[in-house]
Amino acid sequence: MAKNLLIVESPAKAKxxxxxxxxxxxxxxxxxxxxxxxxxxxxxxxxxxxxxxYIVPDEKQKVVKELKSLAxxxxxxxxxxxxxxxxxxxxxxxxxxxxxxxxxxxxxxFHEITKPAIQSAIKKPRTVDMHLVNAQQARRILDRIVxxxxxxxxxxxxxVKNNLSAGRVQSVAVRLIAEREREINAFNAVSxxxxxxxxxxxxxxxxxVSFTAEGKKxxxxxxxxxxxxxxxxxxxxxxxxxVKPGKKSPSSPxxxxxxxxxxxxxxxxxxxxxxxxxxxxYESGKITYMRTDSVNLSETAMDDIRNQINSRFGNNxxxxxxxxxxxxxxxxxxxxxxxxxxxxxxxxxxxxxxxxDLIWKRTMACQMADAELEKTTAxxxxxxxxxxxxxxxxxxxxxxxxxxYREDRDEEDIADEEAQEGMLPPLSIGQKxxxxxxxxxxxxxxxxxxxxxxxxxKKLEELGIGRPxxxxxxxxxxxxxxxxxxRDKEGVKREFRIxxxxxxxxxxxxxxxxxxxxxxxxxxxxLGLVVTDFLKLYFDDIMDYNFTARIEEEFDEVAAGKMKxxxxxxxxxxxxxxxxxxxxEKAERASGERELGTEPQTGKKVLARMxxxxxxxxxxxxxxxEKPRFAKLKNTQSIETISFEExxxxxxxxxxLGQFEDQDVVINIGRFGPYIAHDKKFYSLGKEFxxxxxxxxxxxxxxxxxxxxxxxxxxxxxxKEKIQLLRGPYxxxxxxxxxxxxxPKDKQDTAADLSIEEVKAxxxxxxANPPKRVPKKKKKx
DNA sequence: CAGTGAGCGAGCTTCCGCTTGACTT
Length: 781
Prior knowledge:
Layout (H helix, E strand, L loop, with lengths): L3 E5 L2 H11 L3 E5 L6 E2 L6 E2 L5 E2 L1 E2 L2 H16 L2 E4 L5 H14 L7 E2 L7 H9 L6 H28 L12 H17 L4 E12 L5 E11 L2 H11 L4 E13 L7 H12 L3 H13 L15 H15 L36 H16 L5 E12 L5 E11 L36 E10 L8 H10 L8 H10 L3 E6 L2 E11 L2 E11 L2 E7 L1 H13 L1 H4 L3 H13 L5 H22 L7 E5 L6 E7 L2 E6 L9 E4 L11 H7 L4 E6 L2 E8 L2 E6 L2 E4 L11 H18 E5 L4 E6 L2 E6 L2 E4 L13 H13 L13
Helix pairs in contact: 3-5, 5-16, 5-17, 6-13, 6-14, 8-11, 8-12, 9-11
The protein binds one DNA strand through β3, α3, α5, α13 and β24.
């Protein structure tokens, strides 16, 4: 039995540290927080100065029990949870639960899992910092109050009745997506005509090569035309050449957020996929901790990286760099994400390999030399007017870090006028250049792109909202609640004009481009838009992008001992509670209703709004004598953008196509997509058919085909008992009502011979031994 | 599997931030 018990948060860390500390120490993990606020009455006694009521959740009972018994036996307990607000609180909760005195129990911290770091930490233990703990309690309690007071307001005031929620982080995340969508919808593209001239010149091996020079942008076709006309029969002369050195520097090593962004851009991984793979790499000891906001590297790591660079590429490729975090909200309890050993070049698991490669390369690059460039800019004079053309080229003189890694950029950071700089042939001042052609090409301004999961994380991090451990779960939450959808959008074709000067004549051409196409982007749903508008109207403070930053400053004050945590909460709660009460009393039920027009035949109002089951359009109002007609919006349609014509189109369903075998053939769209209804049976309509145009002659064969397919699946039917024997993909099975039961393996071949008694016995048998199911999460507290 | 659309009220849901685990198809 070891004399000392040392507790950390992560079990993978526990193992490593135990190896470092040796026999004197038993190192255990508490798996994160061990207590939480109970759920009854928010778990907070607001009247009594916000006194929290903590419980140990069911899933933590086992760990806590084990730690308790180990703590009792140990001579000394060391609390080595992470050095940040949450980590400090975990240490305090451990004291409370294990019966340790927070005033005397040894609390140690380290930012890296290396021998020197841990050994020196052991030499200077401190005690739990109660100010920091109180800052965490304030954070926890505020989040609980916001979430548990706002969500019920939505349950009362939204026309949709599923499990809605609101919170300090998720509601602002949805707001970002909602506002971006509206910006895009309101965007008016402006076009300009950009002049590009193609010249030819001899390269070093005396071969003719062509290169492009750029001219001005003209705001109208007419002004571009005037310019091109003025260039007819002109001579072009190189008037100036500037050569300037340039450099590029590597990016800082990965944090959770930058890893998610690069894995998204380079590998197309979703934020959660990146985290699952990173977790695997971490657990198998391949990389350091993956939930971090720090760009710091340990000294051991720096040495390791330097040795690798020197031995692989030579020391001219090495440049020592210390990175500083730009983010004010960073808590830096860990290192940056890096390989544990740089000599480990790859990992076996194919899924993890790509991500590991990325981490390895980024880590190498961050300690490598700048890439050195030479930028050449040549000015070209036009003999017939005063304008000038500019040709620029870039030559890589020394690759430096680019040898291993090049960072991708977000769509929104790429300015559309930015040219891809290539090589220029050697040019000299006074050189005459033959023009191959000159064009003025119409280019449209573009709105900001919609968020990807990763670019949303980037934005949230910039705003200081959310933490490395919550980026992925936050995205899952807003998707699960139906506030946001991840999908593609087809672009639309757009014509653009080209004026071309060639062989001393200007001609007008046109071409097409696709615009507005999006892949795997986040779109707000109508529900997301309605909820966001509602919350903004009544809870402007919470929805403010700077709300988190503001309260973080107050948490810092609490942590510094300059402010009492409960009076801070009181300052927040008093006005907030008033807003909640006012909203419950005054706010109308929110439905995002929009009037689209009136039906010509009847003069009835046509409305788009949220209904109980989602966005819909309706003709007429509930108070009218006649009941209104309703129709569901299509997936890609929105209350905000649907036109009157599109709405009327939706009322063309259900369509009666005619009769087949004396029964109506009806087309409609249901919960699971378009279907054909015939003789009380339903046949889904494949994607290749449009329910609005599919014809009788197309529909009937589908009915016949699906019916025979079903018959072929049917082995036997017991009409009276409503039991069927069916052939499924895994062999024959019994179907009674909605439930399926298995047929024992030895009877499967002769299923057709089974009697009703035998089948009933099988059902009883199957009911007695039900297949094990996922245990539902117990709700407690 | 293919319905619905108003309002009432039972009884339910809900937050953010730490950590992994192991139901089954």
